[in-house]
Amino acid sequence: MVATGLLVASLFTLACGKPLSRLMQRHDARSDIPSGFVQGGSASPDAMLKLRLALVQSDPAGLEKALYDVSTPGSALYGQHLTQEEAAAFAAPTSETQQAVNAWLSENGITATALNPAGDWLSFSVPVSQANELFDADFTVFTHESTGKQAVRTLSYSIPADLQGHIDFVHPTTVFPQFKINRPVTFKPLKKNLTERALPSSCATEVTPSCLQELYGIPSTAATQSSNTIGVSGFIEEFANQADLKKFLENFRPDISSSDTFTVDEVDDGTNPQSESEAGLEANLDTQYTVGIATGVPNIFISVGEENSDGIDGFLDEINALLSQSNPPHVLSTSYSFNEPDLPFSIANNLCNAYAQLGARGTSILFSSGDGGVSGGQSEECSTFVPTFPSTCPFVTSVGATQDSSPEVAADFSSGGFSTLFAIPSYQSADVASFLSSIGTTNSGKFNRTGRAFPDISAQGVDVVIVFQTEIGTVDGTSCSTPISASIIALINDELTAAGKSTLGFLNPLFYANPSAFTDITSGDNPGCDTNGFSAAVARTTGYWSRYPQLRVAENYCWTLGLLGIPVMNFRNYE
């Protein structure tokens, strides 16, 4: 009797010390290894994994409605951007979700950290052995053949059945790192002794700040509102060089101080070393044209380091970091993108909703559309058209590229098309219907006729002059047109702030509702996938690839200020 009692007590003790067994349900799986990766052996049981739980958000539909309410001209709430707390409330999980997930984590001895104000992202670290048990997974080492980089991933995972409807997804698990990014296609050194004073004022040969000021009517006088800021995203160890910026300003903005610069905001242990050899082509381009065009607007270079496990170069970490700031930049320019098919809907949708949060708070978010025509971010073989993300998110503004100046034409590399993940948003529905009617059965079956169309605007993107590692040369790409466009928005925000008005925030409803602020690009196409892609043509209103509008503000800069309630007389030095 004594021995039996001790055995029962021992079993009871063991049961109390071990998490209760739960019925598990498969949550996600992939049938194959992504192209470019090879599978190695199982990950070491003792290796630590930094995992995140994306919890189901309480009211994403309410967030979308709130975003449109504050962004659509004519709305009673137009311009009344949400506070950090108000935006976060829509994405916050319900109390039931929080309690259920936290109870499960606690059972397993895990304390998680919230990554943003909404609390819909939780982070924790566990050894591989525990991760395999928690998620009924097999975490394995995979190697990317062309870079040699390794990633620990699993081809399938499960979660407790009673947490279905509470956990959206676990990350990183079945989503592999992405190494395809959009950046300028080439750097072409210039042989001639090139300065702003030696260049023609138009953009006929090379694109410089002064030619853009003339072409688009951009003011050269400095902004006055220190609260109005512009952010520039930096990924994959692309570093912005101060010495190159100084030389750029000395040569191409001699009317302003060459000491004008940017501050650095670091995410994921990002850095910004200043040796000449570490200067980044993309980072230099982005900062030289935001500092050089958005004169006097405080500029923040956001350096996102490689200390992240999200597998998509820190995009998730950057947006969560910005959502956690009480005063994020009023414009965010990002010249990096992915091919949409490389990302699952869960990740893309979560990122898109995060952009909606930031937009609802008054930030204009611009992304380059990519440089592969209808083949995606960069030219490649394909049988169906490849859209790019985040350009396909309906809550951001996608920027394409033009070239020449009399007239401007669509740059043939500039990506554009239709999303396979996101439906046509209401602000462009009439434009898309008109365009689809005009092309009939052209390229039938190669794109999604019900998808969100992109890009939304365009600007110069060919033969854009920069300084790179002390050398003056030119680059091409939608990576050029994006910071140029973002800078114009930042200058308009300066005028709005000075007039006591709110910043523009999410741009698309305003843009599509006011086509006269833009000029049609009526020639050029974007070939790819063994086709001519989509052809530029006169459109009903602004906003989709066939129209391919340039961001034109020559006679329309004053028009835009008038539209926003700022008298033209308040526009400094406009001629």
From TrEMBL:
Q: Show the GO MF annotations.
A: metal ion binding; serine-type endopeptidase activity; tripeptidyl-peptidase activity
Tell me, which GO biological process terms does this entry list? proteolysis
UniProt keyword terms in alphabetical order: Calcium, Hydrolase, Metal-binding, Protease, Serine protease, Signal, Zymogen
Q: Which Gene3D superfamilies match?
A: Peptidase S8/S53 domain
Q: Where is the signal peptide?
A: 1-17
Q: Which residues form a coiled coil?
A: none
Q: Where is the active site?
A: E282 (charge relay system), D286 (charge relay system), S479 (charge relay system)
Pfam families from the UniProt entry:
Peptidase_S8, Pro-kuma_activ
Highest taxon of source = Eukaryota
Domain Peptidase S53 residue range list: 206-561
Membrane spanning residue stretches? none
In terms of SUPFAM superfamilies, this protein maps to: Protease propeptides/inhibitors (SSF54897), Subtilisin-like (SSF52743)
What are the boundaries of the region Disordered?
260-279
- Enzyme Commission number(s) from the entry: 3.4.14.10
Which cell locations does it reside in? Secreted, Extracellular space
Report which reactions are catalysed by this protein. Release of an N-terminal tripeptide from a polypeptide
Annotated InterPro entries: Peptidase_S8/S53_dom (IPR000209), Peptidase_S8/S53_dom_sf (IPR036852), S53_propep (IPR015366), Sedolisin_dom (IPR030400), Tripeptidyl-peptidase_I (IPR050819)
Name the cofactor(s) required for activity, per the record.
Answer: Ca(2+)
Q: Name one GO cellular component term.
A: extracellular region
Q: What does this protein do?
A: Secreted tripeptidyl-peptidase which degrades proteins at acidic pHs and is involved in virulence.
Name-wise, this protein is tripeptidyl-peptidase II
